[in-house]
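Predict the assembly for these four chains.
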Amino acid sequence: MTTPQQPAGDDAGSGARKNRLSREVVLAAALKLVDDEGLEALTMRRLGQALHRDPMGLYRYAANRAALLDGVTELVLDELAIFGDDPDWQGQLRRIAHDLRLLALRHPNVVPLLVTRPLSTPLGLRPLGTLRPLEQILGLLIDAGFAASDALHVYRAYYGFLYGHILNELQEFIVDPDENEALLRLGLHRLPSKEFPRLRALAHQLADYDGATELDEGITILLSGLSAHLAAPLIKSG
Amino acid sequence: MTTPQQPAGDDAGSGARKNRLSREVVLAAALKLVDDEGLEALTMRRLGQALHRDPMGLYRYAANRAALLDGVTELVLDELAIFGDDPDWQGQLRRIAHDLRLLALRHPNVVPLLVTRPLSTPLGLRPLGTLRPLEQILGLLIDAGFAASDALHVYRAYYGFLYGHILNELQEFIVDPDENEALLRLGLHRLPSKEFPRLRALAHQLADYDGATELDEGITILLSGLSAHLAAPLIKSG
DNA sequence: CCGGGAACGTCTACATTGTAGATATTAGGC
DNA sequence: GCCTAATATCTACAATGTAGACGTTCCCGG
């Protein structure tokens, strides 16, 4: 076997000199960097250093930094599994919502990319991994009996709410739940009480935010509303 | 001549030489720069040049570039008027939604800031202008009879959906509506038809997206769902 | 009128970034 | 062995944010 792949040792520690590089390896390293140290830590030089390679060599696997960012978002979105053939479309949508939420909590630093990267590329030209969820959910809905254009509307409302919720939750997310309330109170205390009476009064409720149930209730509302307004197939159980 | 800079004569070319600078002026110039040329055009040097000032002088009005970005988002959000004393809370929420949508369309390049900047600052420490809508909408809901904590839930669902919709719409937004369909078709044509049959079939519907009614219907669904689930005061007319 | 202090403005300098382009190194075919 | 093409690395450059030193202007109490 003279293939260039040499699984002598993974890049644990400082060894791992010269394994063959690949796009996947590069993107995985980039994602790790972002997860560990934030978006602005992802520079060509830092990434090259993490891979024990010359920074310039990375341009073979991503045309430029923007393409690298796109690659990272695609990689993260690939973690989301969608089963397009589930007849229980409501249950499926609910599960996907929770999965996406967990994914966002696993990679909070990537969320800005998730929501803003698509803004700079017209829909048809996005990385395929980004479009796959759209296609699969459309399939889910159409198979469930929605007209194609209605499926599009449902998808928009659904994903719109989903992304909005994720942004909301990450805004209120603070790492240490003990420190959370203290920090919040501290921060809120700064607000002039004349101008922000209700916000200050809500400090406690703000402190114990439960994203999962908040999301779930939102989805419930949305689904019931959709069913009513779109004359959808009301498959509730079997 | 003794001093190279003489304020006596107006600068040849672009006027407006030496008016006193202020935070508002700086932020307004920054916003204009972002609106005209995009986010990455907003550098200290470019901004200084737009104001005919030394870039370093700007640090008097914004501690650093991040603070400047925060200032821009605050400035944009200030364009949103909320009347906290309207008894028709549903109508008010609907109007705000449309206003925010129009605001986003007026400043598409600022939207990434709108949705990501709060992620880097804990709630209590944000610029006050950013928190004002929250406070006012809470007031609106509480005055309408919601319990404080329910008001918070409603706010979250509402703003979540709203931000999600804006992101959705801006993604599909292409400047020239004639070019729109062409570009879309072109882009979609690139997609492998085996993998993306429904997306490709929906090209036409994607092309004539109507954000306003899409948003309006979403709000309707949300409000009806909320009313049902939260035992809200069902003030429909007067 | 002045003269001193504070606010404001400008210049230079430096570390870091993305990336073009030249150069070195390696692999495979004869 | 050598020749060509791919691949890896180095050097270089323009642009960025921003610290720190230096000038200039303004105001206010004497």
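The longest helix of chain A spans residues 148-172. Residues 43-45, 55-56, 59, 64-65 of chain A lie near DNA strand C (CB under 10 Å from a C1').
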